[in-house]
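Page 47, continued from p. 46.
Same chain as before, 146 aa.
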Amino acid sequence: MINIHIETVKDTNNTAMLKIALLVVGVAYVCNAAEGVKIHCPITRMPGGLGIYKKPDDVSQRVVQAVIDDVAARLGNVLILKWKVRKYRTQVVAGVNYYLKLKVKYAGDIHFIHIKVFQSLDQKYTLQAVAPGMPRSGCIEATDFE
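Result:
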């Protein structure tokens, strides 16, 4: 939902025209995102909430490596031939929750899945949930696993 408030101001700086121009640009951006041009994943920063999106790095690779066998088991004991982290987010709890988007190859096809992994304070990784059949682009949300 988009809330937009425009008020007309009578001045010589054409403030109303500027606001309308900004509105048009904003609507064009939303329409392009809806058509698949670009997906914008909003980030709500709040204590205990999911953090910003991060690019794959050594940390995300280590997390997935620790649970990839469990992921294969949850997907029906498939043989995962290749996997790649696309992006991920974290949530600080009594440890860390990792929410990761993976590109995996199994059963002769490429699939996109989301996984949730918990890292305890003693640095152990536990696979919490797997959400198969996710779109190639799009956001990673805690609700993906409900």
